[in-house]
């Protein structure tokens, strides 16, 4: 939607768009990167560089949550307008746990509402409290008491924390009271050390030969072929050594499995890969797959089969990877 906003003094763009009826997925807290607008007149900020590609910023794409304007501003807004809430009789909830954030979606067959909330440390108490508080607020808006089923997916560390050390390897359905969640049941897709269920949902429909790079506090590499190989590399995005680590890992996979396609996350963690055939990915497939899994036992069974094909690669103990790392 194209807008012309007028003001005679410095004004928060976030507050103005909220007043105009637009909804920010994370409440405008700067943690999700989804409040996108096209406004070339606005300067690029550090938050833009974190979530947007160079090409997007060149085309004038900006994030609205951290901007101010002090004169007439022409922009194209990609945010959804807030809509009147309706009553839901049999809602379900999909939760994706990332590094310090949880994306919580309410669904009754289609996604009805979605928010991103921050939690503190990756602990059982912090994660459960964040989900519980936001889910209850959603239920109040849509006049329902709790969900029938809540799916919780994410990185293996986050799921391990959410489940408080319970044996959830292989996934399954559990009484929600076990996790103090406002639902009848909690469904946990398959997860094990080094292989998060959120990533598994992301690669479930990728074609064989695809190497997917996912960045969320760590870098995870997933190759889908006869076997599904995964490797994880923790590193800081501003660490120059990180560029060598990524390059060595991509070369390692290129030699071992000869991938035909590279798909990666749209943020500054993976810009180091620009010289080695990196292709930014579009919208995430994980939420669509999660929605399908909520509606079909067949999809759940397919995820279970996929999980059994996963093999974790310990790069640190791979001689060839060490050679590639040393060569720069």
UniProtKB/TrEMBL annotation:
It comes from the Bacteria. SUPFAM superfamilies: 2Fe-2S ferredoxin-like. InterPro entries: 2Fe-2S_ferredoxin-like_sf, 2Fe-2S_ferredoxin-type, Beta-grasp_dom_sf. CDD domains: fer2 (cd00207). One of its GO terms (molecular function) is iron-sulfur cluster binding. This is 2Fe-2S iron-sulfur cluster binding domain-containing protein. It comes from Candidatus Stercoripulliclostridium merdipullorum.
């Amino acid at each position: 939607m194209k807008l012309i906003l007028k003001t005679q003094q410095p004004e928060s763009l976030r507050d103005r768009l909220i007043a105009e009826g637009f909804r920010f997925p994370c409440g405008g807290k700067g943690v999700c990167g989804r409040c996108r607008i096209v406004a070339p007149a606005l300067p690029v900020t550090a938050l833009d560089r974190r979530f947007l590609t160079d090409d997007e910023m060149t085309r004038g794409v900006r994030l609205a949550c951290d901007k101010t304007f002090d004169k007439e501003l022409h922009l194209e807004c990609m945010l959804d307008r807030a809509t009147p809430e309706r009553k839901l009789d049999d809602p379900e909830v999909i939760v994706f746990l990332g590094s310090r954030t949880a994306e919580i979606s309410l669904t009754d067959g289609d996604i009805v509402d979605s928010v991103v909330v921050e939690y503190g440390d990756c602990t059982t108490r912090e994660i459960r409290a964040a989900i519980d508080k936001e889910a209850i607020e959603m239920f109040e808006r849509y006049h329902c008491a709790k969900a029938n089923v809540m799916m919780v997916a994410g990185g293996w560390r986050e799921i391990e924390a959410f489940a408080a050390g319970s044996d959830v390897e292989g996934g399954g359905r559990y009484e929600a009271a076990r996790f103090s969640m406002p639902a009848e049941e909690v469904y946990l897709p398959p997860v094990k050390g080094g292989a998060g269920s959120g990533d598994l949902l992301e690669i479930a429909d990728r074609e064989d030969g695809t190497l997917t790079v996912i960045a969320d506090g760590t870098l995870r590499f997933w190759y889908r072929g006869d076997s599904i190989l995964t490797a994880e590399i923790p590193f800081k995005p501003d660490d120059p050594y990180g560029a060598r680590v990524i390059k060595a890992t991509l070369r390692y996979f290129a030699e071992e499995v000869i991938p035909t396609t590279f798909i990666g996350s749209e943020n500054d963690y993976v810009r180091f890969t620009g010289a080695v055939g990196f292709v930014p990915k579009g919208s995430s497939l994980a939420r669509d797959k999660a929605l399908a899994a909520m509606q079909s036992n067949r999809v759940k069974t397919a995820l279970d089969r996929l999980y059994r094909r996963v093999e974790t690669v310990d790069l640190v103990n791979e001689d060839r990877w060490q050679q590639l790392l040393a060569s720069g």
